[in-house]
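FORM 7B: Structural annotation worksheet

SECTION A. Query
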Amino acid sequence: MRTLASRPRQGNVGGPNHVHRRSLYEPASFCQGARVHPRWASKLAVLVGLLGAVACTSTSHHVEPTGDRCEHDDLVGGMVEPAAQEVVVAVHKKAWEAALGGEEAARPAVRARLTGWPHRLLIDPSTLPPPGRAFLERLARDTWHGIAAFTDREHALPVDHVRIVDEVVGDYTNVTTIGLHLIATVAAHDLGLLTADDAVAALARTLATLEGLERHAGFFFNYYDTTSLERTSNFISFVDSSWLTTGLMIVRATFPTLRPTCDRLIDGADYAFFYDPALGRMSHGFYVHRGERSRYHYGVLYAESRLGSLIAIGKGDVPPSHWFRMVRTFPAACRWQAERPQGRERKSAFGQVYFGGHYEWGGVRYVPSWGGSMFEALMPTLVFDETRHAPASLGANGRAHAEVQRRFAVERLGYPVWGLSPASRPAGDGYGEYGVRPLGSLGYPAGAVTPHAAALALAVDAAAAANLRTLATRYPSYGEYGFYDSLDPLSGRVAYRYLALDQAMTLIAIANHLRGGRIQKRFAADPIVARAVSVVAVERFFE
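SECTION B. Predicted structure
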């Protein structure tokens, strides 16, 4: 789970400066994580009311959609799992702040723990290279400098976010953010921004910190304070854990000297811990303080959580049939969905019967995500080349989602730029869920454009590079450390915040684009992935 911007997830964090995301989920057992709404909470009492994920319920208890009958006709949101309401306070961090005069008085000391800070708010866009390779190289360099700067100098962990104008540092981190930070460091080396020795040294420091963090059953908690290293969550998240595993896989494939440490952390995480054999799906996670799993499961295939399923299958922790227990489309009788599914026919693979189907918009066919956002569709492509390994299913779907994202923004919304995904709100504090409604089963509303979503499209859409340069030209959105988190194409407002996860996604996407998919190739060569490729390659979405 992330805070000022992250992906879905449940959890709880102590401290009034934490930004909390709330998730929208699918009905009943099809509840699906999605990036969530964070809220600034000024008091702990307010924070408690915002913790956790927005849950959902259904009047039906059936879990498998059959035929044309909707088993989930009542969609109810806004409910919070009771276990997510219990706050974990970082006691040592609070004592440290108190010794400095309190949280506000401690802010300069928090900022001093970072390795750098920008000297100016904006870069004159006329000084940037023209559209093309040189611009992407410059963007990668600036983005990496920011990622390195916003890292705790003592513990080598990325802080969650930084607000530039009022100089507020979100000095906590999430395991997905750590996993992407590891990959971003490898990407910086691939781009020639970091020598091999410096990359190994930086990664070794982060791994040493990881080995000292509190864990449960081989898994890391969802949040940690970057100053005190205390866990600030009771929750073990399936999808966040899988992105940390992904980062470790990339590191061990790149730098053999770090392999023993990565192996220990990867092998110690058995993903059967999250698996519900009765449903054939992965639970959202586990509440350690209550000794129980979340009541919700990842039910939709086309979400960023699919990478975790790939890893769990490849490790042998769950059976291949798990991949086909997730929903491609809901029955047409589910009238709450954004579009009417077509071609929803019964199929079978690896001994599992499932239903296919697709939506169509503007002559483009696609399997929907939940919210219609870019990160749901393309975040897994940061490491897994779906166009190569699953061309008739995930690969074709990624291209379709990018095309609809671009056309919907330009043709329907009248935007000169595109890339809709959850991000900081350009007007005021907080975090919003943005997407292309027809691309999702439920679908998020349109709104802010976020540069990291535009960068993710580099994997599948040749127009993505020019779109990034247009973002820098038309809006005051490019700072010393690359793009700020989001902008409103209509009002021109910009969210002057850097979010660690979004910056890492931008850098990794550019590195793959400029260096022939090196990160993707390392991931595919890992034995875990090699064992799972045949499972994901067998499907053909549109036949």
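SECTION C. Observations
The domain at 28-537 is CATH 1.50.10.140 (Glycosyltransferase). Residues 251 and 393 are 28 Å apart (CA to CA).

SECTION D. Sign-off
Analyst initials: ____
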